[in-house]
Amino acid sequence: MKNDIQEHYDSIQIKKAMQDLHITKASELKEYNCVTLANKLRTGYNKLMIIRKLNDLGYLPSAENAISIYDIPMSRKMRNIFLRNGIVYLAQLSAYPREEILQFRNVGELAMSEIDTLCEKYGIQIRSLSPIKEAFSEFQFHKKIYPLFFRGNIFSVDDIRNKSAHDLYDICEQDYCLTMKTYYALRKNGVMLCGWNDQYLFEILPQYKSVRLFK
User: Fold this and answer.
1) Domain hosting residue 17, numbered range
2) Are residues 17 and 46 in the same domain?
3) Per-residue pLDDT for 89 more than 90?
4) How many domains does the chain have?
């Protein structure tokens, strides 16, 4: 990848973006498409330039619903709101719960109404955290877990039953303490996770010992 990118204009920004994502090989881009990569790249990068260059090089596939915000009519204010919040494809919004979009910079009721209209017109679904909170209302999770469950496509108890503790660790963005607390909340409510090829300490030790280790 390095030699190919060096031959292209503005390759320094592309290389820096890949370093931020710890991507060192072209094959590691196979798990992304232009929409999912756009959500991973931090705001401040010229996301469309990076994505189009990687696409031209054959490293990054397109997405069926990859509609650029420059290719559809919207107010100038709305386009600026999207850019300030790192949104260059409308489909990126599906990765965010409604509650989080409402916290985007400069998004109020009027802006949210325009977003809803655009998404309805182009078939983009925006979901809420409410179904997740309702499904796990008796679990007393830390509030941080609900957006993480959203990103991990965990919307019901059945969705988590086929996961292992290691899957939960990844869903919790490798936050060990949050994983441990969530694991115990699940177990307290009769939800046992699947096994995998190793075990975490909180799966082996009594709860009071596991918690004490990480205080």
Assistant:
1) 2-56
2) yes
3) yes
4) 3
